[in-house]
Amino acid sequence: MVPGFINETFFLIVSGTKPWVTMTVELSPLIYIKRPEYWGIEVIGCQHGIGLPQTAPYHVALDISHLLGTKGIEVIGASTRKQFKVP
Predict the structure, then answer these.
(1) Angle at CA 36, nearest 5°, toward 62 and 2?
(2) 41-72 exposure pattern, b = at least 16 Cβ within 10 A, e = fewer
(3) What is the mean pLDDT of the chain?
Protein backbone atom coordinates (compact mmCIF):
# COMPACT_ATOMS: atom_id res chain seq x y z
CA MET A 1 0.00 0.00 0.00
CA VAL A 2 1.52 3.29 -1.09
CA PRO A 3 0.17 6.85 -0.72
CA GLY A 4 -0.79 8.84 -3.81
CA PHE A 5 0.29 12.38 -4.67
CA ILE A 6 -3.01 13.84 -3.45
CA ASN A 7 -3.73 13.75 0.31
CA GLU A 8 -5.66 10.71 1.57
CA THR A 9 -5.27 8.69 -1.64
CA PHE A 10 -3.76 5.21 -1.60
CA PHE A 11 -2.79 2.54 -4.12
CA LEU A 12 -2.38 -1.18 -3.58
CA ILE A 13 0.42 -2.75 -5.65
CA VAL A 14 0.75 -6.54 -5.64
CA SER A 15 3.44 -8.54 -7.41
CA GLY A 16 4.48 -12.16 -7.48
CA THR A 17 4.93 -15.16 -9.73
CA LYS A 18 2.03 -16.75 -11.57
CA PRO A 19 2.22 -20.47 -12.45
CA TRP A 20 0.97 -20.05 -16.03
CA VAL A 21 2.12 -17.49 -18.62
CA THR A 22 -1.42 -17.30 -20.02
CA MET A 23 -2.98 -16.49 -16.63
CA THR A 24 -4.22 -12.97 -15.87
CA VAL A 25 -4.10 -11.62 -12.32
CA GLU A 26 -6.59 -9.03 -10.99
CA LEU A 27 -7.40 -7.34 -7.69
CA SER A 28 -11.08 -7.67 -6.78
CA PRO A 29 -12.50 -5.80 -3.76
CA LEU A 30 -15.18 -7.55 -1.71
CA ILE A 31 -18.63 -5.97 -1.37
CA TYR A 32 -19.90 -4.97 2.07
CA ILE A 33 -23.17 -3.57 3.37
CA LYS A 34 -21.42 -1.80 6.24
CA ARG A 35 -17.83 -0.49 6.28
CA PRO A 36 -15.63 -3.21 7.85
CA GLU A 37 -12.50 -2.78 9.97
CA TYR A 38 -10.35 -4.23 7.17
CA TRP A 39 -11.71 -4.07 3.62
CA GLY A 40 -10.98 -7.37 1.84
CA ILE A 41 -9.34 -7.31 -1.58
CA GLU A 42 -8.85 -10.65 -3.34
CA VAL A 43 -5.97 -11.48 -5.66
CA ILE A 44 -7.61 -13.54 -8.42
CA GLY A 45 -5.84 -15.49 -11.17
CA CYS A 46 -7.81 -16.57 -14.24
CA GLN A 47 -6.53 -18.94 -16.93
CA HIS A 48 -7.39 -18.05 -20.54
CA GLY A 49 -7.03 -20.22 -23.64
CA ILE A 50 -4.53 -23.03 -23.83
CA GLY A 51 -2.44 -23.17 -20.67
CA LEU A 52 1.31 -22.72 -20.94
CA PRO A 53 2.78 -24.16 -17.71
CA GLN A 54 5.63 -21.68 -17.45
CA THR A 55 6.01 -19.33 -14.50
CA ALA A 56 5.98 -15.59 -15.12
CA PRO A 57 6.07 -12.47 -12.94
CA TYR A 58 2.98 -10.31 -12.48
CA HIS A 59 2.35 -6.81 -11.14
CA VAL A 60 -1.14 -5.37 -10.56
CA ALA A 61 -2.29 -2.10 -9.00
CA LEU A 62 -5.61 -0.75 -7.70
CA ASP A 63 -6.71 2.66 -6.43
CA ILE A 64 -8.01 1.84 -2.94
CA SER A 65 -8.77 5.39 -1.77
CA HIS A 66 -12.50 4.57 -1.62
CA LEU A 67 -11.99 0.96 -0.40
CA LEU A 68 -10.51 1.57 3.04
CA GLY A 69 -12.02 -0.03 6.12
CA THR A 70 -12.05 1.76 9.45
CA LYS A 71 -8.56 0.37 10.17
CA GLY A 72 -7.21 -0.55 6.72
CA ILE A 73 -7.31 -3.28 4.08
CA GLU A 74 -6.80 -7.05 3.98
CA VAL A 75 -5.20 -8.62 0.90
CA ILE A 76 -6.56 -12.14 0.37
CA GLY A 77 -4.52 -14.58 -1.73
CA ALA A 78 -4.96 -18.28 -2.51
CA SER A 79 -3.01 -19.44 0.54
CA THR A 80 -2.51 -16.40 2.76
CA ARG A 81 -4.08 -13.18 4.05
CA LYS A 82 -2.33 -10.02 5.17
CA GLN A 83 -3.74 -6.93 6.84
CA PHE A 84 -2.40 -3.42 6.27
CA LYS A 85 -3.29 -0.46 8.51
CA VAL A 86 -4.06 2.93 7.00
CA PRO A 87 -1.20 5.31 7.83
Answers:
(1) 30
(2) bebeeeeeeeeeeeeeebeeebebeebbbeeb
(3) 91
